[in-house]
Design a protein that fits this description.
Elements (H helix, E strand, L loop, with lengths): L3 E4 L7 E5 L3 H4 L5 H4 L4 H12 L9 E10 L2 E8 L10 E10 L2 E6 L3 H7 L7 H8 L27 E9 L10 E5 L4 E3 L4 E7 L2 E5 L4 E6 L8 E5 L4 E4 L15 E7 L2 E2 L11 E3 L8 E4 L2 E4 L3 E3 L8 E4 L6 E5 L8 E6 L3 E15 L2 E9 L4 E3 L3 E2 L11
Antiparallel strand pairs: 1-6, 2-3, 3-4, 4-5, 5-6, 7-8, 7-20, 8-15, 9-14, 10-11, 10-13, 11-12, 12-15, 15-16, 17-18, 18-19, 21-24, 21-27, 22-23, 24-25, 25-26
């Protein structure tokens, strides 16, 4: 995306809402960016039009909130709302803007220019820049799309059990990618799944930017916190489950609409570990299930929050059995050295090739050496990657 440049003078307000018009209506209504080029709001809206979906829908409104400004710099949130009760949920981005020689340069989260501008913006602290720079996927160490490890817990207190009202589905209902889960119950306190930096996109909607290119969205919150780049830890309170649709969408009952993002875009939540559960797509949106070892919970069932899975940890999946043998070496030619139960969390020291086996996740000759010195075949362990998670032995 090429950053948008228009002439500008100053920020008139901090919160501005601008209706979007359809191509038909545009012939009768002048483009605000053309009629008022001095308005930063118009520049941001123009950039949103290039990035957003359904921009011809006249029910959608652009809300630009410049939460920070100093001199020639501005930073904030930009949201395309939708009608309350609609099947479509709002779209939103962080934005950064810089004015030089009377022209505004605006970039939205996910664009290369966003990382470039935030790295120079004095209104963005250094610790915040690091996480934001990872959101466009260009940084060294950015997580591969095939890596299902997130380091996240479920969005409630560890040790509590909530209901998975809706299995994998789109941020806006049935549309792909199926990035989201609907979750409810427990004490109704929605918590950050992993540490990061939090932003209020609009009332009832919090986004947390994490490391490794990940971010998470929490919508329909009641009593949500009001944050603008605040650091949070795993377990920080974000709000209560609710039915808020201030920026559009629908909520038939009290819950949190939880969405997973990577590199500033929603991604399929299936095969990603959240709270030591691995969501699985069903035949249709809102169906599906989640796996913890061999235990499968279908939509409508209960999920216990085991906490975050470490990046060098795996979950034993006996593929329907009660336990998996541990060996003294990487293969069935080595002696049995005990067993480990289905669903157990294990720490992997290193990996090596050995005898081949087939499990739920396919056929492999990879064996993992556990922290106690014993070995387990990778065929009966969920690690999130197709290969070693802690190097070769």
């Amino acid at each position: 995306m090429i950053p948008r440049l228009l002439a500008g003078a100053s920020l008139a307000t901090l919160l501005i809402a601008t209706p979007l018009v359809s191509p038909t209506a545009a012939s009768a209504a002048p483009d605000p960016a053309a009629t008022n080029p001095a308005d930063l709001n118009s520049v941001v809206v123009a950039e949103m039009r290039e990035r957003g979906a359904s921009i011809a829908d006249t029910s959608r409104t652009a809300k630009v909130n410049a939460t920070r400004q100093a001199g020639e710099w501005a930073f904030g949130t930009a949201v395309l709302t939708t009608a309350a009760g609609s099947d479509d949920h709002p779209e939103g981005w962080l934005f950064v803007a810089h004015r030089a020689k009377g022209a505004w340069t605006v970039a939205l989260e996910g664009e290369p220019a966003f990382a470039d501008l935030t790295s120079r913006a004095p209104i963005v602290p250094a610790e915040e820049r690091t996480l934001l720079a990872e959101q466009d996927g260009r940084q060294i160490g950015t997580t591969s799309a095939t890596d299902g490890r997130t380091g996240m817990a479920l969005p409630w207190a560890v040790g509590q059990t909530w209901s998975m009202w809706g299995g994998p589905h789109g941020w806006s209902g049935t549309a792909a990618p199926w990035s989201s889960l609907d979750l409810a119950g427990g004490d109704q306190r929605v918590l950050a799944t992993r540490g990061g930096t939090a932003y209020t996109m609009c009332t009832g909607w919090i986004r947390v930017i994490h490391d490794r290119g990940y971010s998470t969205d929490y919508y329909h919150l009641w009593n949500s916190i009001n944050v603008n780049g605040a650091g949070v830890s795993q377990g920080t309170f974000l709000g209560h489950t609710g039915t808020d649709v201030t920026c559009g969408g629908s909520a038939s009952g009290r819950h949190v609409h939880f969405g997973l993002r990577q590199n500033s875009a929603y991604i399929g939540i299936a095969q990603h570990n959240i709270g030591k559960w691995v969501p699985q797509n069903g035949g249709a949106a809102y169906q599906g299930s989640a796996l913890h070892g061999s235990a499968r919970v279908y939509a409508g069932g209960a999920l216990y929050n085991y906490g975050a899975l470490g990046f060098t940890q795996g979950i034993i999946d006996a593929n329907g059995g009660g336990s998996v043998n541990k060996r003294t070496g990487p293969g069935t030619g080595y002696g049995v050295a005990g067993s480990v139960g289905d669903g157990a969390t294990v720490t992997v020291s290193c990996s090596a090739n050995g005898t081949s086996h087939t499990g739920r996740w396919g056929t492999t000759s990879l064996w993992n050496r556990l922290s106690d010195g014993t070995w387990v075949t990778d065929a009966f362990m969920w690690t999130g990657v197709n290969g070693p998670i802690n190097g070769w032995c």
